[in-house]
Amino acid sequence: MLSRLFNRHRPEPLSQYQQLGGEVAVRNMADRFYDIMQTDPEAAELLAMHPQPLDAIRQKFFEFLSGWFGGPQLFSAKYGHPRLRARHLPFAIDTRMRDQWLHCMYRVLDEQVQDPLLHQQLKAQFTQLAHHMINRE
User: Fold this and answer.
1) What is the pLDDT of residue 26?
2) Tens digits of per-residue pLDDT, 24-79?
3) Does 10 map to a domain?
4) Residue span of the structural domain in which 73 resides
5) Nearest residue to 97 (alpha-carbon basis) of 33, 44, 51, 60
6) Residue 125 located in a structural domain
7) CB-based contacts of 60: which residues, under 8 Å, 6+ apart?
8) How many angstroms separate the CA atoms of 54 and 34, rounded?
9) Does the keyword Transcription regulation apply (predicted)?
10) Do the Cβ atoms of 17 and 30 come closer than 8 Å?
C-alpha cells in the first residue's frame, strides 16, 4: 500500500523523443541525416544505394525514429514491425556502408543533441543498430 502511494507521485521519466524535443526535433534529425548524406563526399557510396528523390525515405526514417525514441509509433502503424535487418537484406551493407551511415548519424548527434548523457546514449544505440545491420563481409 505504501509503495503504491510513493510510486503514484514519482514522475515518469521522459522518453528520448521528449528529451529531444518531440516531433519537430526528430523530423529535423531525420532531414539533417539525409542532408549530410547528400552533401558529404564521405557518404557518396551510401547515397548511391538510396532511391532518388529522398522525400519518401526521409519520411519513413522520421516515422521510424519517432517510435524508436519512444514517441508515436508512426512507422509501425503504417508498415508493421520495423524488422530493420530483414528490410535491409536486399542491400549490401558491409563495414564500409555501416561506417558511412554512422558518420552521417554522428554528425547529426553532434549538431543537434546538446545533453551529454542523451548524446552518449543515442550514439551507443545507433552504433549497436548499425553493427546489427551488416549483412555482407
Assistant:
1) 98
2) 999 999 999 999 999 999 999 999 999 999 999 999 999 999 999 999 999 999 99
3) no
4) 17-133
5) 44
6) yes
7) 75, 79
8) 8
9) no
10) no
pTM: 0.90
What is the DSSP secondary-structure string of the chain?
Answer: -HHHHHHHHSPPPPPHHHHHTHHHHHHHHHHHHHHHHHH-GGGHHHHHTS-SS-HHHHHHHHHHHHHHTTS--HHHHHHSS--HHHHHTTS---HHHHHHHHHHHHHHHHHH---HHHHHHHHHHHHHHHHHH----
**Per-chain mean pLDDT for the chain:** 94
At residue 73, what is the residue type? Answer: Q
Cα 49 to Cα 136: distance, rounded to the nearest angstrom:
15
- Chain length of the chain: 137
Question: How many structural domains compose the chain?
Answer: 1
**What CATH number did the domain enclosing 107 receive?**
1.10.490.10
CA 26 to chain centre: 9
